[in-house]
Amino acid sequence: MELAAVEFTIISINSVLKKKFLVVGILHEIRDLKLELESMRSFLRVANKCNNDQNESFDFWVAQVRDAAYKAEDTIDEFVHHIEDIRGRHGSLKGFFHRFLHFPKEIYVRFFTAIKFNQIKEEIKEIAKRSKRYDICHTEEGSSSDPTPKWVQNIEESSFFVKENEVVGKERERSMLLRWLMDEEPQRAVVSVVGMGGLGKTTLVANAYNDHKVKRFFDCFAWVTISQSYVIEDLLRRLIIDFCYGKNDQLAHFDLKTMGYKQLAETLVQVLQKKRYVVVLDDVWTDNIWMQINVALPDGKNGSRVIISTRKEDVAMYPFGVTSHVLHSQPLTEDQAWTLFCNKTFSIEPEKACPPDLEDIARDMVKQCAGLPLAIVALAGLMASKDRSELKWRAVHSNIEWHWRDNPRLEVVKTILFLSFHDLPYCLKKCFLYCCRFPEGDYWVGGGRLIRLWVAEGFVEERKGFTPEEVGKSYLKEIISRSLLQVRKSNTLLGAKQCRLHDLMRELALSISDKENFSSIYDLQAGIENERRPRRLCLLHPIDGSTPMFAPNMSHVRSFAAFNFCDNPTLSLGSFLSSFRLLRVLELRDAPIDHVTTTIGKLFNLRYLNLSRTRIKELPESMWRLRNLQTLDIRETNIEELPSGMHRLRNMRHLLTYCTGRMEEFEYIVGKRVSSTISKLKSLQVLNCIEANDEIIKRISKLTQLKRIQLTNVRETDGIEMCSSIGKMKLLRHLLVMATNENEFLALDALPHSSIPPVLRKLTLVGRLKRVPSWFPSLRNIIYLHLHWSQLAEEDPIQYINGLPNLEHLALVNAYDRGKVKLCFYEGFPRLQDLFLVIFHDLGEIIIANGVMPSLVRMKLHVCGELKKVPRGIEHLTKLEELGLKDVSDELIDSIRGEQSVDYDKVKHIPAINHSYKINGRYEYESLSRA
């Protein structure tokens, strides 16, 4: 990460060099500075390979490099702001006179900037000389580039000797692994076990590998641990030796030391000929290993198996060309984690039980391990060495974060987790570290929000033919595939819906960020150390709601975020905004803010502004000055109308404005009023959500980069113009159209089949439909379809959409007129995962034919008062995991409550059945799931 500051500055210089009018008079100085920084970058890349973890002088030297790079970046940003401010209106006569009057100022700015560039260049040269003078970075001869210490490899391989009765919480995974190892499939098969570091993958595999049934089933065995810098010839030699274990006479015929790759592969094939073997490739980091080793592992059609353990999803999902299985290893539950901790900590006690006076303290510490067996065992080892004294245990508990970072007894946890970070490409390291800025615990971050932040921070590299958001999405997928982020509510359309760092991964990221001064997290009660000059500042607000106090100049801060605000006190935004002159990211989601002052217009460098879920009612007119703003998030605020000057924000890419209500209501989403000049924002990709009018509907066709748009207040007479505009948005992926009220019709038949946006994935129509649009069957790529208040009287949309091959989410909310008594699903819906049926007042029966919706995972039935039984055929939905019932009849609930109920057998395969009902104006919840 030593490269981060230098990389950022080089990127900034490159962007300036592309604008020729900016570099007039300073071209020589800025090119010289770039050359110095590029030389320093190359030097740092070499230095990075040295083992400088404990080198204090190296860390101090890197800090000097970082400070110099930051000075250069600050100078560039200030310079660009001043020049663009002077030349900002050069397209008009008024602009010409403005520039003429300010020409002396422009000359001064260029002259002063050239001087600063030269000073920084000399400072970098002196830093480079200092490194040579004191030999700060040197590479010891024969040093290894493998980041895995030998003692860590030894600890990992010690899992080979863990007994079966010592493995806790992995019984189901072990059973599945054994079944795949010894099934009747004669073809060679690959079994991959994937999960984050420390989950116990090696222990699990070793336990199955050593099972006595496995030993009897296979003829020969081999186990190799793959380092991040493996040599394929060495691996093949180790495999031959393992497979020939106990057969010294056979080994004597091979001169393994002199053999090359081809000879070793041929020898291994010879050794394994006609044998049923099992080989374990432990801790695999790249799928290249399979391409190299596959040819040496013959398939004798006798049931041989290859087991791979890995932290990387792409390795586990690699197309091996043979039968393959993937086992996703899971963290332990709280009970399993507690059992493992007690087994290890109190191993000499007869009952292996924790003393009652220590249990609360111990359970809280175990909870912080978040189900990670490696961490639990390491913590158990630490606590087993302590006296059974509440005072001693409480001392560890109160400083547990320090212990995770610096206690030698827990070093193995940090080291093994660090390997995953070390293996990341440079561009992903910044993105990973950025995730630690969010609060620990049950705080999940939307994938889209994370990507927008990465783009605003400048972490996302340019790729020809791709938008920054598309590149950012690939970054997110890669980090998740490496088991570095936890994910929930994932679906095909949005990728990672919500994600977060495992608590111990967050501790690792925090320690690296702190060391590199990448970002700093402060609790106001502890104060802010301005001496460190943090680049990214994250504030954990105290419960008393006091306004943070900052130094007069916080221009070094590029990103400011605040979390954990209390509800009542009001935060004065204007009191500290003026301190953050060069801010790129300002995130105040959930902050107790009533208004935004005009001071915000001075944040010329701002790329990302999040004021969602605050109490603000309007934005200041000075917003137009934020020329670099890419994302404005004012969702769930009291703002009703955007300022008139918004069309000047030419770099705006994401405008998020909507408020949401209850799904059972017509107006479940509310848009903001904007000027029709919004159509001048040519870079706009997301426009969620605005009120439509005649001019807006005509002009939005000019927004050719739009990928998402939500329009409310649409009238029936707008139909033709609306269809014309939609047909011109070739990149559109998400579309929501809402009528002015629940009696207004949406007229969308004028959209030709050939004009449907080819990549449309999500469609929501809110308002009455006279008929199902004729183009519905053409929605071949649609994944999400929501018909809201359609009140169809004559046509049934089911027959038009049951054949859509990619449909995964279907919501029908008051989609039929009164009188619909039977809903039939006789065919289709091959990929449907979510089915929401809401507000069917007269519906008495739902029929789902066998074979329909084979992939359904979630079904929700809300406000279906006449429905007396669960859907007929629900027993055929074998993948159904959740059934949600809300405001349904007592008869339906009674038919599935308890094992003696009439329809219990039809729903007993569903893990989660949830019932919500209203009592005295409040909703109560009960679980009807089987125990």
Give a description of the structure:
The chain is of the alpha/beta class. Helices cover 35% and strands 16% of the residues. Strand 16 (659-660) and strand 17 (669-670) form a beta hairpin. The two termini are 50 Å apart. The model is unreliable at 139-144 and 490-496 (pLDDT under 50).
Sum this structure up briefly.
Helices cover 35% and strands 16% of the residues. With 931 residues, the protein is α/β, with parallel strands linked by helices. α1 packs antiparallel against α2, α1 runs parallel beside α3 and α3 packs antiparallel against α5.
User: Strand content of the residues, in percent?
Assistant: 15-25%
Tally the beta strands.
30
The 3D shape can be described as globular
Low-confidence stretches: 139-144, 490-496
What is the CA–CA distance across the termini? Answer: 50 Å
Largest sheet: 18 strands, mixed
Please give the radius of gyration in angstroms: 31 Å
**Protein structure class:** alpha/beta
Quaternary structure of the protein: single chain
Count of helical segments? Answer: 30
Question: Residue share in helices?
Answer: 25-40%
- Mean pLDDT comes to 86
